[in-house]
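haha ok so turns out i had the wrong file open the whole time. this is the CORRECT one, sorry everyone. sequence first:
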Amino acid sequence: MTIPAAELRTRAALLDSQRRVLERIASGAPLEEILETLVRLIEEQAGDMRCAVLLADAGQQRLRFVAAPNIPDDYKLGIEPYLRIAPEMGSCGTAAFLRQPVYTRDTATDPLWENCGQIAVRNGLRAIWSTPILSDASIVLGTFAMYYGEPRLPAEEHIQLIDMATQMARVAIEAKHDDEMLRMVFEGAPEGMLITDLAGVIVRVNPAFAAMLGYAPAELHGKKFAHITQEEDARALMEELLSPGRGEIASDRRYRTKSGVILWGRERSALRRDRAGEPRYVLTRVEKTTEARHDPLERLSRREREVLELVIAGRTSKQIAARLGIAAASVDTYRSRLMLKLSLQDLPALVRFAIRHGIASL
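then structure:
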């Protein structure tokens, strides 16, 4: 079956709109800017239609306009008392209350607009269609509204636009909510926390982590993670985090303070992904320890233990790399790390350590 050229162009335009909105989300743009970009892109697809996004307050009681570049100010001001999330509150308040779309064909005659229809009519807004933006838990995040200057109901192409717009608005709103929650937890955490990019460059640290090492938070921004630790391992850490089934890596590490003092920290690193599933950054929590743990094996991550066992078994770096699905250079990095953590100088010392701790036998 051949798809008509006009439909192909519409699909391409919708995909391009999605891409542009996702780019704004990924760039960390303010929510209002992201939603206004979405509104303008949807309006471009529908000619004489105007759009708006309204957000719900924390108490799920009211809505407010957050992105409505082409909606008259007189309308926004006049309709404000009727933006309660309740029945018979025009199209938006009712849609949010019912958690389902409300399509008003004519604001001059629809019973939902009995008390406020004149506000819409005098501003040339006769048809108003509102769709709730719901979270996965069915919490009302807001509504997406479409406005026409003449009485009408939505056609199939309008439903397509509405579906895409509400989906993208939900992604943007929830992404910003997640970011805000992470920021609050991050800044106020009593334990040290830091964020590094995929190349091991420090993007952000919280006050507790900076104080632990004797820095101001801004002093650590942009530094390589290796600058404050005793070993370079950004690539190896990323390979371990990206391996199947890994959610979090825990190990002991030696950190270097601003004054040069070495201290031990128990760290837990997790890879954070964006909503498309792509790796975004590494979030590490660090608890200062006054000394290395009694069991030296507790200092090692799971991958370091795997490398240790295979080294003791006589496997070469190439064989270990093939077995674990990592680069041979990463095997060498892991081996250097575990030797450093265990304070061992050579392979014979490593073998003796393994025998002493039951990893290998005579």
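The first helix runs from residue 5 to 26.
again sry for the mixup
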